[in-house]
């Protein structure tokens, strides 16, 4: 990778992505076979700083670090930390840099991880900055797509909250490196932000926008479903207008190709009916499990760069 930190998907070239995914595949095979992995980072401590709720991202980074032989320290909930006393993010990360060899940061403010990365010398991974970016999720999404459908000549539909969904912003940016055909499906009020559309356009991406899933479903190799990000809406009434807008159930998928792969970064609320879970379409739990080998590969690259 060209940089020490991972703050946005735009940093990743196709070669960077392939390097991480290839490494992840090695870790995946080793984990799968049950063989014990050499403890590559026995002295290494990863600091977890989550200013917003997390299950998958935090636990998979923790598992990844431990599987590499290292350990973690966790800032814990914001309510129980000095953030409550009014400490600035810059001060907090400068202190935490003294405890950990890398920092994984999730924060409600866009740009928080980039800002934090300017104050510390240890690698910073953006684990979500408001409605901005979530690049490590993108790596596991790409890994999952590569396994299920391949990354060449991909036609993907991304549906739901494209405005506030940070996983979407990162994934769309990264997919420009693979010349994917991207179809964005959302209510008008939740279209991709102008800045993301601009970046996709600048990258020469093949992008189309829709308000109805039916318009594109039969063409798709992958359907990437997202949760409406209720916590980001300035107004609850606005959320209620779009809540439940796209719900995928068995009937919806009647028009889909038999090879369609359905993904979701999770957590889901009601976007995908549980009846899909046991079908061959469903890939979202596998996707979440891929977080461990992919984050092992990412940590390995960042930490070995930094030695
Ligand atoms: C996502 C996030 O935090 O942006 N969750 C995750 O990390 N898998 C998606 C979401 O919260 O909807």
TrEMBL record:
Which GO biological process entries does UniProt record here? Answer: 'de novo' pyrimidine nucleobase biosynthetic process; 'de novo' UMP biosynthetic process; amino acid metabolic process
Q: Which GO terms describe its molecular function?
A: amino acid binding; aspartate carbamoyltransferase activity
Any idea which positions bind L-aspartate? 85, 166, 227
Q: Which residues form the Aspartate/ornithine carbamoyltransferase Asp/Orn-binding domain?
A: 153-301
**Catalysed reaction per UniProt?**
carbamoyl phosphate + L-aspartate = N-carbamoyl-L-aspartate + phosphate + H(+)
Residues at which carbamoyl phosphate binds: 56-57, 106, 134, 137, 266-267
Q: Which keywords has UniProt assigned to this entry?
A: Pyrimidine biosynthesis, Transferase
UniProt xrefs under InterPro entries:
Asp/Orn_carbamoyltranf_P-bd, Asp/Orn_carbamoylTrfase, Asp/Orn_carbamoylTrfase_sf, Asp_carbamoyltransf, Asp_carbamoyltransf_Asp/Orn-bd
Pfam families attached here? OTCace, OTCace_N
Q: Residues in domain Aspartate/ornithine carbamoyltransferase carbamoyl-P binding? A: 5-147
Identify the domain of life.
Archaea
NCBIfam families named in the record? asp_carb_tr, PRK00856.1
HAMAP family this protein is in? Asp_carb_tr
Explain the purpose of this protein.
Answer: Catalyzes the condensation of carbamoyl phosphate and aspartate to form carbamoyl aspartate and inorganic phosphate, the committed step in the de novo pyrimidine nucleotide biosynthesis pathway.
Question: What family classification does the UniProt entry report for this protein?
Answer: Belongs to the aspartate/ornithine carbamoyltransferase superfamily. ATCase family.
Complex and partners? Heterooligomer of catalytic and regulatory chains.
- List the protein's name: Aspartate carbamoyltransferase
Organism of derivation: Halolamina pelagica
């Amino acid at each position: 990778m060209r940089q020490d930190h991972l703050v946005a998907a735009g940093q990743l070239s196709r070669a960077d992505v392939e390097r991480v995914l290839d490494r992840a595949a090695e870790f995946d095979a080793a984990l799968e076979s049950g063989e014990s992995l050499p403890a590559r980072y026995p002295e290494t401590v990863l600091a977890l700083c989550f200013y917003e709720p997390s299950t998958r991202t935090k636990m998979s980074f923790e598992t990844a670090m431990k599987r590499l032989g290292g350990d973690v320290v966790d800032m814990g909930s914001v309510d129980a930390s000095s953030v409550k006393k009014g400490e600035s993010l810059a001060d907090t990360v400068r202190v935490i840099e003294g405890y950990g060899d890398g920092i994984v940061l999730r924060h409600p403010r866009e740009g928080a991880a980039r800002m934090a990365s300017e104050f510390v010398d240890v690698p910073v991974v953006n684990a979500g900055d408001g409605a901005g970016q979530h690049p490590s999720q993108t790596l596991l999404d790409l890994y999952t797509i590569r396994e299920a459908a391949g990354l060449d000549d991909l036609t993907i539909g991304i549906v739901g909250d494209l405005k506030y969904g940070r996983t979407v912003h990162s994934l769309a940016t990264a997919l420009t490196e693979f010349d994917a055909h991207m179809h964005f499906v959302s209510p008008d009020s939740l279209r991709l932000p102008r800045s993301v559309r601009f970046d996709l356009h600048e990258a020469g991406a093949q992008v189309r926008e829709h308000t109805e899933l039916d318009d594109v479903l039969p063409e798709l190799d992958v359907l990437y479903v997202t949760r409406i990000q209720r916590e980001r809406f300035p107004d609850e009434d606005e959320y209620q207008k779009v809540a439940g807008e796209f719900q995928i159930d068995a009937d919806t998928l009647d028009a889909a190709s038999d090879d369609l792969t359905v993904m979701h970064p999770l957590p889901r609320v009601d976007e995908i009916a549980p009846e899909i879970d046991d079908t061959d379409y469903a890939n979202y739990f596998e996707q979440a499990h891929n977080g461990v080998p992919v984050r092992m590969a990412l940590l390995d690259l960042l930490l070995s760069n930094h030695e």
